[in-house]
Specification:
- The chain has a domain of 187 residues: TIM Barrel (Alpha-Beta Barrel).
- The protein contains twelve helices and ten strands.
- Helix 4 links the parallel strand 6 and strand 7.
- The longest helix has 17 residues.
Length: 338
């Protein structure tokens, strides 16, 4: 398994990271532990969770995912695992935090409470990568970075990261850290896939110039790039099959991932994968990790049978011809996710 440094930190992680947001929701604990075991055996040493998982967030599920991961991690050597988790950040109209009755403002109080809860549920005394899950652009960046710096100084956290952040927000936080001599964000976790290349518009340049690593989530475009939603298919148990029937923000989100443009581009990407002799999932995963600003690509599964096509991308480098073919589709179908 190939590895890469997180930002300018001392930590090297596997170039594939196993995400866990389905654990406790779409995947029960037995399945989750099998997936984690097989991932570790395959050379994946980097795992990502959050206090707000599983999704969609429900108050009765609060912390379930971390508890499942913690019970698994307790059976392993702690030093062989690089564990990432997140403090929720502000609840708003799109995502409401399942923790603390949805009162999850991004401030010192919530950061301290969140990290203490995560450490307990994960059954560990430190977190390798601690991330802010959602930013608060009107909030106190100085307070946030000081609180996070205290966690690093205390040894509870090794490296800091952010998620769902903008170019402005990332530069704002880096400026605060530089000015006040605080630990800085070494990573950013944002949506990035062949169906959503918006990260390249501005954030990729920030990462390259500032030495920040992207750890992209949703490299399969929410599962769309596997082809499972083509021809109006709604596979049982698939996330967007359910979301499309829930109405409200869930349907709005599903339509961003599953629409005419994303399905059209997916058909073309599947043809590229077939021509190259690989599964669409393998192509999407390999493409994601083949960018100089990416450290590790976060994948997620609901069943162990989904692992082989992902793991086939572990040491795969796509040819220039394949990369150019993907670029051609992108130019023809601009911003399929909006």
């Amino acid at each position: 398994m190939q590895t890469k440094r997180l930002g300018r930190s001392a930590i090297y992680v596997s170039k594939i990271c196993m995400g866990t947001m389905t654990f406790g929701g779409q995947a029960d604990e037995k399945m989750a532990h099998r997936v984690l075991d097989q991932s570790l055996e395959a050379g994946i040493n980097f795992f990502d969770t959050a206090e707000n998982y599983p999704v969609p967030p429900k108050e009765e599920w609060a912390g379930t995912c971390e508890e499942i991961v913690g019970r698994w991690m307790k059976t392993k050597r702690r030093d062989e695992i690089l564990m990432a988790t997140k403090v929720c950040g502000p609840s708003h109209g799109w995502i409401k935090g399942s923790q603390r009755a949805g009162m999850t403002a991004l401030d010192r109080h919530n950061i301290v409470r969140a990290v203490e809860g995560s450490l307990k549920r994960l059954q560990t005394d430190y977190i390798d990568l601690y991330q802010t899950h959602w930013p608060d652009h009107d909030g106190p960046y100085e307070e946030v970075m000081r609180a996070l710096d205290d966690l690093v100084e205390s040894g509870k956290v090794r490296v800091l990261g952010c998620s769902n952040e903008t170019a402005w927000g990332l530069m704002k936080s880096l400026g605060v850290s530089a000015r006040e001599g605080l630990a800085r964000y070494e990573t950013i976790q944002n949506n990035f896939s062949m169906n959503n290349r918006r990260f390249e518009d501005a954030l990729a340049q920030v990462c390259l110039q500032e030495g920040i690593s992207l750890i992209p989530y949703s490299p399969l475009g929410g599962g769309v790039l596997s082809g499972k939603y083509l021809n109006d298919a709604r596979p049982e148990g698939a996330r967007f099959s359910g979301y499309l029937n829930l109405g409200g923000r869930h349907t709005v989100m599903a339509r961003r991932f599953v629409n005419e443009k994303t399905l059209s581009s997916t058909e073309r990407f599947m043809a590229i994968a077939a021509e190259a002799g690989m599964a669409p999932v393998t192509l999407a995963t390999a493409w994601s990790k083949q960018h100089d600003f990416v450290a590790s690509t976060i994948v997620g599964v609901t069943h162990e049978d989904q692992l082989p096509d992902i793991l086939a991308a572990a040491d795969l480098t796509l040819s220039d011809e394949v990369m150019k073919a993907v670029d051609a589709v992108t130019k023809e179908i601009l911003y399929p996710m909006g």
